[in-house]
Amino acid sequence: MPLTQDASLVLASSSRWRRELLDRLQLPYQCYSPDIDETPHADESPKALVHRLALSKANAVAERFPDHYIIGSDQVAVFEGDILGKPHTQERACANLARFSGQRVTFLTGLALLDTHQQRHYTHIEPFDVVFRSLSKREIERYVALEQPLDSAGSFRMEGLGITLFEALEGRDPNALIGLPLIALCSMLRQVGISPLGAE
C-alpha cells in the first residue's frame, strides 16, 4: 500500500512482515524504523520485556510524529524459562530448533498504540503457543539454510517454510506469531476512532 504523507497512523518498525500484516487493514500509514536497545533488563520477565520494548519502539519515534497514532510491537519466544529473541546466526537458529523439537514453545507479542496528540497509550500482550513436531538434525539444518530465519524470534517464519516444522498452533490470533496481533490492534484502533470498515 502506498504510504501517504498525511497518514495519522505510523508503524514504528523496520520489519517487512509487520508492514505486510498492517497492509491487510487497508489503512493509510507511514513507516519509520525506531532505534532502541532491545537488551533485556536484569530479572525482567518475558511479559515485562515485550511490554517495555513495544512501548519503547513507539516512544522512540514520537518526537518525529507529534500528532499521530504510533504502533509498536515486539516478540520473544519463551522456553524452559529462557527468553529467546532473534538468533542472528545460523548456528544459534539450529540450536534453538533442536531444543524445540517435539516441544511446546510460548510466544509473547507486545503491542502498543501511542496517541501522541492526547499523550496516552494502549498496550496488550498476545500469547501464542507452537507445538513443534520431532525434527531431525538434517531437517533443521536444511530449513535454516533455505529460509535464513535469523531475524525472527523463535528461529522460524510461520508465513514461509516454517509451517513445516509444526504439529499444532494454539492461540487467538495467528498474526501475532508473525509479529503483529491484528485482532488486538483493530480493537485499539476502534477505541481511538480508526476502523478499517469505517466509522463505528
Walkthrough of the structure:
The protein is 30% helix and 26% strand. The chain is α/β, with parallel strands linked by helices. It has a single domain (9-191), classed as Alpha-Beta Complex (Maf protein), CATH 3.90.950.10. α1 (16-23) links the parallel β1 (9-12) and β2.
DSSP strand tally: 7
What is the CATH-assigned architecture?
Alpha-Beta Complex
Largest sheet: 7 strands, mixed
When the domains are counted, the total is 1
Q: Categorize the overall geometry.
A: globular
Which CATH class is shown? Alpha Beta
Low-confidence stretches: 1-6
Q: What is the overall pLDDT average? A: 92
Ends apart, CA distance between termini: 24 Å
Structural class: alpha/beta
How many helices?
6
| Fraction in beta strands | 25-35%
Topology-level CATH name: Maf protein
The Rg value, from CA coordinates, equals 17 Å
Relative helix content: 25-40%
Secondary-structure element series: EHEHEEHEEHEHH
Relevant terms:
globular, Maf protein, 7 strands, alpha/beta, single chain, seven-stranded mixed β-sheet, 6 helices, 200 residues, disordered N terminus
Summarize the SSE layout with pairings.
Elements: E1 9-12, H1 16-23, E2 30-32, H2 46-60, E3 69-79, E4 82-84, H3 90-100, E5 104-115, E6 120-132, H4 137-147, E7 166-171, H5 175-178, H6 182-191
Parallel strand pairs: 1-2, 1-3
Antiparallel strand pairs: 3-4, 3-5, 5-6, 6-7
Summarize the structure.
This protein is 30% helix and 26% strand. The protein has 200 residues and is an alpha/beta fold.
